[in-house]
């Protein structure tokens, strides 16, 4: 395995609201520490969490809202985020 495969992280989590904006809170010990390396400009470490701000245009494009599940990974050294296809029924 190469270094890139060793550092691969893939997670699913719900969006939250902070100061009127959608964010994804990722525990550092669950992979947020490795994801933080590719979230410059949209993410920052707050205590033991990585807080990733979801741009309004992206939330609108995928109809994301508070509680929406999103999937994130760091494939190819980039922060990749999208809607989780397995949303529970409301």
Describe this structure in words.
The protein is α+β, with helices and mostly antiparallel strands and 90 residues long. The protein has one domain (3-77). 16% of the residues lie in helices and 38% in strands. It has 3 helices and 6 strands. It has helices at 3-6, 32-35, 56-61, and strands at 10-18, 21-27, 43-46, 49-53, 69-73, 80-83. Strands 3-4-2-1-5-6 form a 6-stranded antiparallel sheet. The longest helix is centred in the middle third of the chain and has 6 residues, at 56-61. The radius of gyration is 13 Å and the shape is globular. It starts with a helix and ends in a 7-residue tail after the last strand.
What's the structural blueprint in terms of helices and strands?
Blueprint: H1 3-6, E1 10-18, E2 21-27, H2 32-35, E3 43-46, E4 49-53, H3 56-61, E5 69-73, E6 80-83
Antiparallel strand pairs: 1-2, 1-5, 2-4, 3-4, 5-6
Sheet with most strands: strand arrangement: 3-4-2-1-5-6
Please tally the helical runs, counting DSSP H or I stretches of 4 or more residues.
Answer: 3
Round the mean pLDDT to the nearest integer and report it.
Answer: 90
Succession of helices and strands? HEEHEEHEE
Portion of residues in beta strands equals 35-45%
What's the number of extended β-strand segments?
A: 6
In short, what is this structure?
16% of the residues lie in helices and 38% in strands.
């Amino acid at each position: 395995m190469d270094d890139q495969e060793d550092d691969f992280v893939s997670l699913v989590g719900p969006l939250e609201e902070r100061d009127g904006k959608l964010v994804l809170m990722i525990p550092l010990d669950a992979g947020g520490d490795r994801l933080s390396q590719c979230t410059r400009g949209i993410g920052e470490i707050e205590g033991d969490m990585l807080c990733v701000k979801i741009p309004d245009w992206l939330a609108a494009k995928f109809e994301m809202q508070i509680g929406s599940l999103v999937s994130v990974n760091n494939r190819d050294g980039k922060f990749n985020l999208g809607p989780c296809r397995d949303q529970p029924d409301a």
